[in-house]
Structures are given as structure tokens and as C-alpha cells.
């Protein structure tokens, strides 16, 4: 048996799409725009056995844009499974990222987190899912809506981009969207018999938020009442008033049976505003997973809101051995730096825990309580909590 890990060639892309669509149970058209140079696959005796690719994207990281490798289309045909091909690809990919030095962090949406946590990934965000009827969108402290809404024309795409950029500016996890990503996600055609809607909220002529959603007919089983479903694709707000106004707008939709919003940020304010928040029927799941491929390059790229010296040790990173050792991070609001050190560490942890801290998903104190790190210096936890805190919880609104 001959096994080779390499990018797919142009004339092998049809085979790549076959493997990815078969393994992920998705149409080949779902992978529009994939290029051979983005792929890294396992071939057994010349046959493509495992598909794997990355989009070269930029992600917001507490106020800075950081280049990331967005892993996608991972799948192995059933006849080739349990042979370690994904691990071989992952190890090869991490080594390439380290040598190239451009994208020190990998991110992905996981079909099952258990697959990727074996490779040093960590769950770095939690996403909520809302399913609410318009009649329950009543606020505990009602306020009048100062502005108004209007429909967005197809020629107003630059306004969407401008509002999205302002919204994501200080957040973590949101991606820099190119036109292809807009068209593939929030602006994709609606389902059959559905309608795509784009509305913007304005006050005194200033645009302060928008919402993109579809309205779709549903099979209600003969139940009395409205049978249409509203599915939110993208909700952006620059002020608290704009956020409340958008939900007040939804409360007036008499022909809608229920409103669905997936990939809701875990710190979304709506549960704290409604008169009856349980009627959101909130469910939760893991969001994006993150992997620090190169500690030395990743940590200085993030924006820190407080200064401090963090000394830590990374242990047991077999796929990225260059991460192991003791590090000294000089975090600064202006320019941070990191270097190897012989000093005694304040904290000792695996690479997955560091990812959770870096993304601001959990605090060092929470990680210590969970047993995800060892504390070697008294008082270190409060310092780490302050330095690693992010302005918002990690969230990603796009599938990649």
C-alpha cells in the first residue's frame, strides 16, 4: 500500500469533490471556488482517499485582523477509514503552516468535536439557537423606536459591507468577507418558494444596523395560525437601540409562525431583554474550534486591552513540538512580543487550553477550576484573567 499526502491536481478536482461530498453528505456545488492549491489530500495507491482543504481567511481577534487557515471539506471515503490518513494530513498541514509562518492559527466547524480535539483543537465558542414566536418578542422594559426601516436595494451592497465592518471591528471570530463569501452565505438564493429580505435600520438618516432573512412556507400539520417561518441569516447592530428596534420589527409580523436564528453569539443580549426569555427556546452547541499552530507567531498578533507579563509552559503538543516549552509573553495595548524563557512558569497547560484563553472563550480562573491547567504562581490567575479578556465572546456568523 502506497500512501501519499499532497495537494490535488487540477484534473483530480472532480475526484476531490466526489470524496468531500460523499463523506460530508453535501452536494458538490457546495464547494464552489475551491482551488487545487488550497487542498491537501491523502492518496492510497493513486486514489484520493481523504479530502482536506483550507481557505486563507482573516479573522477578527479582539480588534485586530489575524490571518487564519480555515479548514474545510474534510472527509474520508468509508472504504479508506481507520487508517490514520487525517492525522497524516493534519500533521503535514501544521508543519507547512509553521514553516510558511503566515497563518499561525487554524479554525474549523466540526461535524464532531471529538475528531479534532485529538489534534489539539479546542472548542473556542458556543453558539445558541433561537426558535421564537413573534408574540413573545415583548421587552421587560419597553422603549419607543426612534428610527425607521427601509428595504435595501441590490445596488446597496457597499452599505452592507460598511455596517458589517463596523460591527465586527472589536469582536473575535468574525471573518473578513469577500464577495464570494457574502454570496455563498447570507446573500445566497432563498429556498424554493422562499423570499430573501434585506432591511436596514436608520436614525436621522444614519444607518445603524441591518438584518437579512428569508421567509419560507412550512408544513404545519394543519395547526391553526400562521405557517410561515422566518430564518435570520445575518443580524448586525451598531447600537443597543438598533438591536431592540430590529426585534420590535419582528414582533409585528402577523403572518410569521416562528422566527429562527442559528449561530447566535453566546453573549447575545436578547435573553436579558425579553419579558419571557424562556420562549426563545434556546439551545446551544459548540461553535468554531481553534488550534494554535505556532505559539510564537499567534500570541503577539492578538489585541490585548491590558498590559502584563505572562509566563507559561506548553506541554504534550506532539503535532506541533515547536510549541512545547516555556514562553514569556509581554502583552501590550500597542505591540506585544513573545520569546522562549528559562523562567519558572506561572501556569502550565496543554495547547488546547491556551487556545481557549487566547480566544477569550474561558478565563484562566475558569480553566483552573476545570482542571485544564496547573497554577505554579500565586496570584497569576487574576493577571491572566485581565490580560486575556476579550471585549466580546467569540462568535462566527459564516460557514466556510
Shape: globular
> What does the main sheet amount to?
8 strands, mixed
* Helix-and-strand structural type: alpha+beta
Query: What name is given to the CATH topology of the largest domain?
Result: Aminopeptidase
Strand content: 25-35%
Low-pLDDT parts are none
The named CATH superfamily of the largest domain? Gcn5-related N-acetyltransferase (GNAT)
Overall structural domain count: 3
**How are helices and strands ordered from N to C?**
EHEEEHEHEEEHEHEEEHEEEHEEEEHHEH
Count every beta strand, where a strand is a DSSP E run of 2 or more residues: 20
How large is the count of helical segments? 10
> What's the CATH class label of the largest domain?
Alpha Beta
Distance N to C terminus: 33 Å
Query: Mean pLDDT, rounded to whole units?
Result: 96
Rg result:
23 Å
Secondary-structure blueprint:
Layout: E1 3-6, H1 13-24, E2 41-44, E3 47-61, E4 64-76, H2 85-100, E5 105-109, H3 113-117, E6 122-123, E7 126-132, E8 148-151, H4 157-168, E9 172-175, H5 179-184, E10 195-203, E11 206-217, E12 228-237, H6 240-251, E13 256-265, E14 283-286, E15 288-292, H7 295-298, E16 308-314, E17 325-331, E18 337-340, E19 347-349, H8 351-358, H9 364-370, E20 374-375, H10 380-388
Parallel strand pairs: 4-5, 12-13, 16-19
Antiparallel strand pairs: 1-2, 2-3, 3-4, 3-9, 5-15, 6-15, 7-13, 7-14, 8-10, 10-11, 11-12, 16-17, 17-18, 19-20
